Amino acid sequence: MNHDQDHHNHSAKRQAKSKAGKVEERLEEKTLHGHSDAMHKDTGHHPPYDEQSGHEGHGGGGHDHHRMMIEDFKKRFWVSLVLSVPVIVLSPMVQQILGYKLEVPYSMYIAFVLSSIIFFYGGWPFLTGLAAEVKKGAPGMMTLIGVAITVAYLYSTAVTFGLEGMDFFWELATLIVVMLLGHWIEMRSVLGASKALELLVSMMPAEAQVIRDGQTVTVKVEELRQGDIILVKPGEKVPADGSVVQGESYLNESMLTGESKPVQKEKEDKVIGGSINGNGSLQVRVESTGKDSYLNKVITLVQEAQKTKSETQRLADKAAKWLAYLALTAGFGTLAAWLVAGAELDFALERMVTVMVISCPHALGLAIPLVVAISTAVSANNGLLIRNRTAFENSRNITTIIFDKTGTLTQGSHEVAQVVVFQQTISEQELLRLAAGVEQHSEHYISQGILKKAKAEGITVPPSDKFKYLPGKGLEGTVEGHDVKVVGPNYIKEFNVQVPQSQAEEGVETVVYVLVNGQVAGYITLRDQIRPESAEAIRVLKENGIKNLLLTGDNERVAKSVSDKLGMDGYLANVLPHQKQEKVKELQAQGEFVAMTGDGVNDAPALAQADVGIAVGSGTDVAAETADIILVNSNPQDIASLILFGKATYLKMIQNLIWATGYNIIALPLAAGVLYQQGIMISPAVGAALMSLSTVVVAINAQLLRRQIK
After folding, report:
1. How many domains does the chain have?
2. Residue 241 is among the residues annotated as catalytic for this protein
3. Which of 89, 213, 423, 608 could form a disulfide linkage to 305, CB 3.0–4.6 angstroms apart?
4. pLDDT digit string (tens) for 260-283?
5. Among the options 167, 228, 317, 404, which is catalytic?
6. Nearest Cα residue to 366 out of 76, 139, 696
7. Do both 181 and 208 map to the same domain?
8. Model pTM above 0.85
9. Same domain, residue pair 59 and 164
10. How does 366-404 read in b/e, with b if 16+ C-beta sit within 10 Å?
11. What local confidence, expressed as pLDDT, does residue 601 receive?
12. Of 24, 17, 704, 698, whose CA–CA distance to 361 is shortest?
């Protein structure tokens, strides 16, 4: 971009980078709306937790409560597991299956006491969930589990105190333990409260310096009023939207607007609250505060998009609903049928209990959570952090991907693209060395780019003195006795300096000229470099029939240059945050299943609106918190891996649901005694063995997912 380059001492550096380790701590976190509700629907989670989950709130309380939920299930699981060991060992059914005999005085009563603790303590979430689902008239997983453990407990208690038959205490104990484990795994993998809005709010400073009667007074940001004059010191965040009344500086707005380079601000220029000031002091007249500010409008957009994010009713929940109906119908139907047929009550009850317990397979409690846990871990090891499971599963449906440019397809930092010399007496390296000698006194993004290039070339930066800042034009100083100036086009025009034709891409590259002893020795161009992996990522997406579009806050020439070089399907330039979100909505209205990738605050609304939001790990915390999936390595090629792995994960879930529930087609009729006259009937022990086999198959099948990602 042939703009005037004010080489102001400047420390505008990106803040709040999402480092891989930091992001991994958020594996349990997800966006505010939809994810927690969907989680509760999947698990049938009971109202005492649902209603207090705080998933509509934006504070930390809901997040703390979700952590308490995870700890609660963890505690119930371990207590129940420990108590289950003696119950299983003492069980006559287990002894019969494994072929051993263990004589312990009052063993049935010991098993009864331990099982009672397991039933009321470990099974409490399922019992309350059963009551809530019955009250709502919406049976699901909790109804299925609740009915099975209640029937098993009541029947086994009756057997303990005189009813003929074999108790189901071991089945009761293992069922509760496995279901607690499944819920704990699932919540540990996907549950938690989003910090997206908290992070957006945290971008605003808490206090502001207001100038009143010539004095600077510190006030809280919420006390600012329209018309106040505020002082923004070097390195500080701008506390409110407004316009500059005095001073000159460069502001880093990249996290807010998507503009990749710091923007020069002088008198009457607009500034945005939350942007970061360089090394110049500014006096700003406040124009917008509170809900009218730019940042708060972005916050509102994120809230709205999160609230309208679609929820996928998952198959495990549907399976549980129908199995609940099946368990109740088949169970009571079996009891009635045998009683009508003249069977003894104890025999009819045993058939009923066997049917109801078999109807609630252990494997169903692990079918989805195991795949979730494994896919989350495997993805993390391969640069994909899954925060919203629904979106991850649905990534197989993506038809269009929208890419933010800065920090996603490009590096997000300006680096030297060309070093061009006009004189034969000076080499490119020498030109770069002299320029770096002057630039070492500045922290401007151009200075940092030149110094970085010099370091990469192994150039030793020479000392310099008589450093001078040329307002609006550049820098100058003395390097090894030579008068060296590094200036922008403004200086060239003002002093009518004659220079050969520049080969730089106008509007795409930033150009600075290097003058040595008054003569133009050459020029250096800088540009936001395209990531090496971007071209391959676009190629793979095209091969898979997925359209790709570029959206950026940069100008038309920059957008076209990047789009053309990568062979993309299209681009939109000079795009504001709400326009990114609107573009996503437009594509969705056309029937497209849209994925959005980005790394800044300006991308947050679109990330939340998209069917699948993908944040690059080198971006801001806000983008990462709003997204469904995070690319830890900031590698666009990981998007292709995401889509393929999403397909494999969904397939494993379907397979596991079939394994978890399919055996009921054969087992239930046999347990009910349909072929009793032919001498074929599943005993409680055989039913339990079949259930265990189903659980093992589901666990092994889930483990095979580890081979699906390259």
Report:
1. 3
2. no
3. 608
4. 567 888 888 988 888 888 878 899
5. 404
6. 696
7. no
8. no
9. yes
10. bbbbbbbbbbbebbbeebbbbbbbbbbbbbbebebbbbb
11. 65
12. 698
